[in-house]
């Protein structure tokens, strides 16, 4: 597709000129980083025109907008993605080629913005891409952390965290907007005042405050000139640090505010699916929420004078409970600043806020100690007290005499503020992120709420953007798909992928498909050689588990199985065994000791296995350091097998599973999260499903677990690998290094239950499923067909589909078009 706005000669001139004005250099003298900047500014130049046109259109059409509130946006690199969405990738690549500049090398200079942990943050990024592509007015609202997700180094097999100073060279795509700064207040006390008419006013005194400064990022829609905005807030002290001040009190206040501002946005909490009740985290939450809601109200009021109709133009979607103070902040503004009465304010709030739940894991639920909460956010706390008081009254009216309901459902209970309860009570929609997950919410975790307000509950199965995870990450396959479908329309309508099914029996097509996979495996093998110094054979099965490290995701099951295979290969060298490369990638939260032990174990087993010449390279293991969006794109493209082996019921949805599927890798997995729907789409014969069902897991849990000793005592293969954790095999004779992992599997004392995640219980079924993977892979034609069908059946899992469902069922947005 020719894009006239990227007329080659003009673009080249622009780049040359940027190098000159930014760095006083010529193209030949410029460093790769400088070239990245110069190219990015040239691209930004074009984006800005569309950005302006889009905002003008919003001004004219006044469509309803969604504010997607999220503590995390895991955007990944912008340059390549923007070029793809502007349909200018090829032209720009050619133009740069002519200048002797390699676009891929330039792309590699961009820091990979990691303002998120994992699934939840990446989902937010995919949603922004889809919203812009579908032409819906949307703002992403978040925090401009100065340090994103840490960089992971592996030293002596251990994870070491290094700071991610992603802003150090400046960011070409961001736009600082000081004119939209907002003040955010913390602490102090609330004084009650009465005016002449006898009305009550709440005045916050003795507070500390910071100035929230927005930075805007363009979100480029695919081939439609729509450019939305991701607005992330930085913090600055509100009173200028006045060194000439003679007033000691002011001096101290200035220092304090300086510190508050510096700390608040310093770093992303690297916890995934785990809540740690840290005061600074709550400060971060209120900081970006208060600024975002204030800005949204100002924007609304510019065009509308009836605040009671807010819900007709605005909806706030809360990405998990992290932004839930939004409910009370909106109430505060309506009550204290707009002067509305409680009922009016509540009526507006409960038509404007909606909540997405991403987990059922108890340790991930946010519950703030009341003393901390009320000290930091005194007015917000008062408002939550009143919300709670009225809600408890309503529970008692609905269920007279049932104080159990009150205890289970109240927002304030046992000295805690329960954010999920607040989100459900105030939200007009509560959604889960995959069908199974939503059913578990309705029937187990949130049963009481579902019974009382069933109309709020709905499912929105997650999705991913094919623009990044196929077009950008796997251009070979993208081109092949276009060729086979005879259209590029799949780029904005992934359901068209089903048209590939007719190639599933075409020998030539299957050969092409697998040869693309092979090329992507070669590309990954080169990356691995360069980064790990390990040689892997692209003809071996690439079996991949990449995701955050968490016990419930069961990387330990995978590694125990590798240990088992290694024992088999050594014991039966005569048996045929199809060569496999087990690839892992995972970051562990810095304070999650057991997760870090699992990383060390993976690396230790890799050391032993990779250096054992006697197994003839039948088994290889690779731990990819610093798994992140940019290397993920290559990994998905190169995978043969997708490991999705969470304990059933624990993975709300998963989205990595969809990225593998899109790239033609069949799933080995449990019936958990979106795996259920993947199997439904691709057919049970094109996946390798094993293990306990979520009902079985929940049943065991309700009955105090199961006894892993029965398995340990009766299955010698399993006993052997478990014992190998403490016999020094993988620890240079050290019997204590993995004692805790051993205990976690067998010993009730080490955790509340032995083998909480049913690893030994599912082991045999997993090994059996892996055996079936091997047999299927040996049959080249069968495997090729299976892989192709995975790509062909992935249509449902586009975030375009997910967003369209949010729009129809929850947000009710108007579509806009931008012409230039
Ligand atoms: C909470 C409190 C304090 C500090 C950190 C946190 C915190 C941070 C991140 C809690 C949870 C998260 C992230 C959760 C997450 O990524 N969940 C995943 O969301 C995906 C998108 O819906 C799902 O596909 C995954 O199944 C789910 O695990």
UniProtKB/TrEMBL annotation:
The modification N6-(pyridoxal phosphate)lysine is found at residue 659. GO terms for cellular component: cytoplasm. It is found in: Cytoplasm. PROSITE patterns: PHOSPHORYLASE (PS00102). Keywords: Allosteric enzyme, Carbohydrate metabolism, Cytoplasm, Glycosyltransferase, Pyridoxal phosphate, Transferase. Its EC number is 2.4.1.1. Its cofactor is pyridoxal 5'-phosphate. GO terms for molecular function: glycogen phosphorylase activity; pyridoxal phosphate binding. It catalyses: [(1->4)-alpha-D-glucosyl](n) + phosphate = [(1->4)-alpha-D-glucosyl](n-1) + alpha-D-glucose 1-phosphate. Gene3D superfamilies: Glycogen Phosphorylase B (3.40.50.2000). GO terms for biological process: glycogen catabolic process. InterPro entries: Glycg_phsphrylas, Glyco_trans_35, Pyridoxal_P_attach_site. Phosphorylase is an important allosteric enzyme in carbohydrate metabolism. Enzymes from different sources differ in their regulatory mechanisms and in their natural substrates. However, all known phosphorylases share catalytic and structural properties. Allosteric enzyme that catalyzes the rate-limiting step in glycogen catabolism, the phosphorolytic cleavage of glycogen to produce glucose-1-phosphate, and plays a central role in maintaining cellular and organismal glucose homeostasis. Belongs to the glycogen phosphorylase family. This is Alpha-1,4 glucan phosphorylase. It comes from Clostridium scindens (strain ATCC 35704 / DSM 5676 / VPI 13733 / 19). The gene is glgP_1.
